[in-house]
Every structure is written in structure tokens, then in C-alpha cells.
Amino acid sequence: MENISQLIAKDLLKIRAVFFRPEEPFTWASGIKSPVYCDNRLTLTAPEVRNHVENALAETVRREYPEAEVLMGTSTAGIAHAAITGHILGLPMGYVRSGSKDHGRQNQIEGALEPGQKVVVVEDLISTGGSVIEVVNVLRQAGAQVLGIVSIFTYGMRKGLERLAEAGVRNVSLTDFDTIAQVAAEERYIRPEDIARLLAFRDNPSDETWIKGKE
After folding, report:
1. Of all helices (H) and strands (E), which one includes residue 74?
2. Helices marked H in 119-176
3. What is the pLDDT of residue 206?
4. Considering Cα of 175, then 178, then 179, then 183, what sign does the dihedral take?
5. Which of 7, 49, 143, 186 is 20 to 30 A from 104, comparing alpha carbons?
6. DSSP codes joined into one string, 162-201
7. Residue 198: exposure state from Cβ atoms within 10 A (0-12, 13-18, ≥19)
8. In the structure, what pLDDT confidence band is assigned to residue 29 with cuts at 50, 70 and 90?
């Protein structure tokens, strides 16, 4: 019987929300060559997959953070997931902007949030962890008690893990890079021998020796 991590991995691969191309790497904004492209916003336009993802996020909050009082999405990718998950759980939700508005009430946190409330942050994907930790810090500065993070997918990169540990915040993802790489090989999206190359990228994204033809 497949577990939820494998199910979500299959879903993301099927709709190409996570797409592997080790032979023709993508280039990130940072200039790093990557064998994987990830766009979990595609889950919103695939109703069956969306149903799996949102119910799994809700179950994760119930299991891992039963004291949660409010869900806060990251801007912009986490907003819809926080809203749908909040609806399933009957919890209030809001979201955190990347910066304060320059007009009106100049809010950075959108939605009602009282000091001391127990919050779970909803994120779509975590790589180096920088953006989600900024959200956690904004919420903490507002007086919230951040219980942790739920996310759809994590790369499990060392920098991301170190940053989360330094911030003292826990993340629980529905699936991860290792699982998706294994499922991708089993489902023939990639060759079995590509797994080691993908994990080498995950372990050190700035080292391009994983690319075919490089020694």
C-alpha cells in the first residue's frame, strides 16, 4: 500500500508540477543549474490532485499541530492552499505579504491575528528556506506562537534544513525530493541511474559535477 508521500509524488509528476530534466538542466534565477522544475500552483488547476493535496495538508495539521488556531499562507503560492485547508479544518486563515503595503493600513499580515494565537504556516515548496523563515519571523514579531510549517514539497537541501533549525521551527512536508526521484524512476519519467545524479544536486546545488559529461 502506497503512503501519502508516494501518492503526492505521483500526483505532482503526473501533472508536471515537478518535472525532471537531468539531461537538459533548468537555470534558476541564481544561475544554478537544476535537473528539476517545480510549480505546485499547477495543483490548483487539477481538481483530483488538488483534493489529494488539500486533504493531506489538513490531515497533517490535525496530526502534527492539533493546537493550531490560525493558518497563515506564504505570499503568494501558499495563500490558496492555506484558504482551502482552513476551510476543511474550519480554521481562520490569512497570509503574510513579502513586504508591508505602501498604502491603506500598510499591513504585512493580512487577516485577523491576535497576539499569542497558535499559528501554522502553509507553504507550497521549500528549497533554501529563506522566504518561509521570513514569514515565521514576521508572525513572531506580531506576537503569534508559530507551531510550525506544513508544505507540499521540500528539496531537503542542507541550507534549508540548517536555516529551519537555526530559526527553531519545524517543517512537515507531504513529500520530498528523495521520494519524488525514486517514484520518477519507478514510473519511468527518468532512468534509475539518474537518481544518484539528482541526489548529488540536492546535496550540493552549486556543484555541477552531477551534469552528464562533467567529471
Report:
1. strand 70-74
2. 130-141, 158-167
3. 86
4. positive
5. 143
6. HHHHHHT--EEEEEEHHHHHHHHHHTTSS-TTHHHHHHHH
7. buried
8. confident
Q: End-to-end alpha-carbon separation of the chain, Å?
A: 40
Q: What count of Cα atoms within 13 Å lies in the side-chain half-sphere of residue 61?
A: 32
Q: Which amino acid is at 87?
A: H
Instruction: Encode pLDDT of 76-114 as tens digits.
Output: 999 999 999 999 999 999 999 986 544 445 579 999 999
Q: Are the C-beta atoms of 135 and 97 separated by less than 8 Å? A: no
> Given strand 171-176, what is the order of strands in its sheet?
109-110, 93-96, 70-74, 118-126, 145-154, 171-176
Separation between Cα atoms, residue 88 and residue 96, nearest integer Å: 20
Cβ neighbour number for residue 71 with a 10 Å cutoff: 29
